[in-house]
Structures are given as C-alpha cells and as structure tokens.
Design goal:
TIM Barrel; single chain; about 35% helix; three-stranded mixed beta sheet; alpha/beta
Length: about 350
C-alpha cells in the first residue's frame, strides 16, 4: 500500500523473492475470491477468470477453534466432520499450479471459521493475559503453516489474519506474528480488517497493504433503476473519506480483501449479513458493483478489489440466483468491463 513504484521498505525487500514469479503488476488488483468447497476447480475455471480480466485470485485456508473462549486454533484434518478436499494442503498446491498456468497471481487469506454456537471470529475472547499468550502461540502455529504453504505455492501475497476484532489492540503480539511470517514468506503481507474496525489497527505500517473486508452499509437506493447507482455512489462518501484518512495516516494503500453483494432486494443495506433474503434483484447487485468501481478505481491510494465470490463450474448446479456470486448475472458484465481495461488506474502494484 505504498505510493512508490512497488512496495516500500521491508515490504519491497520481502517481495523480492516472489517478484520473479510474475512481472510487476501495474494498476489496482483485479481480484476474485474463489470458493472450491465441494467443487474441485479445473484449469478451465482459472482460465475463465483470466478471460474475465482478473489478475489475482484469493483462496481462504480455514481453521477453527473448539470454542470462542478456548485458546486453541486448529487446522481441519482428516476425520473432521467438515473435512473436504478444499481444506487440504494438496488442494492449495494444486490450485496454485493451475493458477500459475493460467497466469493468475495467488493470494492466501487464512481465516477462522465462525463457531457452531453462532459466535463470529471477531468475538474471540480470552479470560486473562496468560490465555491470550496461549491463543497467539496457537494461532501463530496455524498461520505459519499457511505462510510456508503460500511460499511453496509461489503466492504473491498473504494475509496474517482476518476479522479478529478483539485481538487487533494487542500490538506487540501482532508485530511478533508478522515478523515470524516474514521469515517464511517472501511476498507482500496484509491483514483483513473488518469494515467497522480497520481504523483501530495501530500497526498497519508493519504490513504492506491495508486490507478491508468492505461490507459497508450503503442503505437501500430505492427501486428507481436510473437513480440507484448514483445513490449508491453518494452513500460511499463517509466510508471513502475514512479509508483515505487511514491510508494517508499509515502511508499504505488499501485494497478490499473482500467486497460483494447478494443479488436480491435490500442486499446493500447490510451486505455483511449472509442470512438476509429477498426477491431476486440482479440489477441492484450490478449497480452496487458499478458504484464501487466508480468511487474507488482511479483513487491513487486504492489498490484494488477481491470480489466475493466465484464458484468453479461444477459448483454452479445449485440455485445461486440470490447469492453473492456475479456469475451469469449483470454484475459479471460490470466486472468484465472494468477488469478488461475499461477503467484501469496507474501505478506499480504487485
């Protein structure tokens, strides 16, 4: 997230090892998040993303905790009830190989799954300092495993964490975690902060990009299709001002590690609420995509989007008419237009 040719300071040195895998990428990241759950992707899936105009693909290795107050972080392994090919190291190495063959840059974003009791990963809570120390030791084991895997995959980027709200004030713990990750991974680093707490992070200079899970609440733009997009553009104003302030404060560019909208009525009111339902409205989803591109794409402090989410062709058999994916909807045409060179920005970003 720097304003120079590539990355600044430690980030530039760290990225040197990965840079030879791809030439430097110019302009904002044209990212997509890929969901391989229960649908193993093929080379054709990655080639489809490349044809769409994507430059980066984000994958999410999931871990879990037995309970949100227990200082133990685990990887999914054989025998677990939810185990799937998509959670194995073999899967990530295979997807990395396919992505490179399709000339796509890979990003790994390790994430803790939400808890079966309904708690969100941002609600992780320990009783005392000793428990927090134990939690971070366990979490570091988890994230370092995937840092090493990202290096083996020749990924270009890596997130040290995702939406861990209650932990971000523990500056020294995160600085230690980041330093350990840099020992194992040679690409750029980010942290994926939630849309409503990214300003609480005081250690953004320790990573190379500010990552934001950008499910900002934009309200209901109304049913007028002519004015909906413009109202959504206006609704972004407060969030945009806050993001730019933090970018300038820490001298780091910002990208959205996740951004997306479901394709039903009301989906822009609380985009983070996955359980909301409404009548199918693919136009609203497309307007929301278009508004985000118009607001951010050419800003010099903005480093790109990772849209949530894309499914392998084999995973499209079920009804996704109201879901986040833009596939086969108007939003896919918006993506293709912007990612295909219809509004690209400048600057050297990897």
């Amino acid at each position: 997230m720097r304003r120079r040719t590539l990355l600044t300071s430690a980030g530039a040195l760290a990225f040197a090892g990965a840079c030879g895998r791809f030439p430097p990428f110019r302009g904002p990241h044209r990212g997509i998040t890929l969901d391989p759950w229960r649908a193993r992707p093929t080379l054709a899936d990655f080639q489809t993303l490349r044809a769409l105009g994507a430059s980066h693909v984000a994958l999410f290795p999931f871990g879990y905790m037995p309970h949100y107050t227990e200082p133990v972080v685990r990887r999914f392994e054989e025998g677990h009830l939810l185990m799937d090919w998509a959670l194995t190291d073999e899967a990530f190495l295979e997807m990395g190989r396919l992505a490179r063959k399709a000339r796509l840059r890979m990003v790994l974003i390790p994430t803790l799954a939400d808890f079966l009791d309904g708690h969100w990963r941002g609600e992780v809570r320990m009783e005392d300092d000793a428990s927090w120390d134990a939690w971070f030791d366990s979490y570091r084991d988890f994230v370092l495993h995937y840092a090493e895997l990202a290096e083996r995959m020749q990924a270009v980027g890596f997130s040290v964490g995702t939406e861990l709200r209650r932990t971000v004030l523990m500056r020294e713990q995160w600085l230690h975690t980041i330093a350990r990750v840099r020992e194992r991974f040679g690409g750029w680093l980010t942290y994926a902060a939630n849309w409503d707490d990214y300003a609480q992070v005081s250690w953004w200079r320790a990573v190379d990009f500010i990552g934001v899970q950008a499910y900002f609440e934009l309200g209901d733009p109304g049913g007028d299709p002519v004015r909906a997009r413009d109202r959504l553009v206006d609704a972004w104003t407060p969030a945009k001002e806050g993001l730019e302030t933090v970018s300038r404060q820490f001298d780091r560019k910002i990208f959205f590690t996740e951004v997306g909208y479901k394709s039903h009525e009301g989906s822009t009111i609380q985009p983070w609420d996955w359980e909301l339902r409404g009548e199918v409205d693919t136009s609203l989803q497309a307007h929301a995509y278009e508004a985000a591109f118009r607001v951010f794409w050419t800003e010099p402090w903005f480093a790109g989007f990772y849209w949530w989410k894309w499914h392998p062709a084999l995973g499209l058999s079920q009804d996704r008419s109201r879901e986040f994916t833009p596939q086969g909807k108007e939003a896919e045409l918006v993506l293709r237009r912007w990612y295909g060179g219809g509004g690209g920005g400048g600057g050297g970003i990897t």
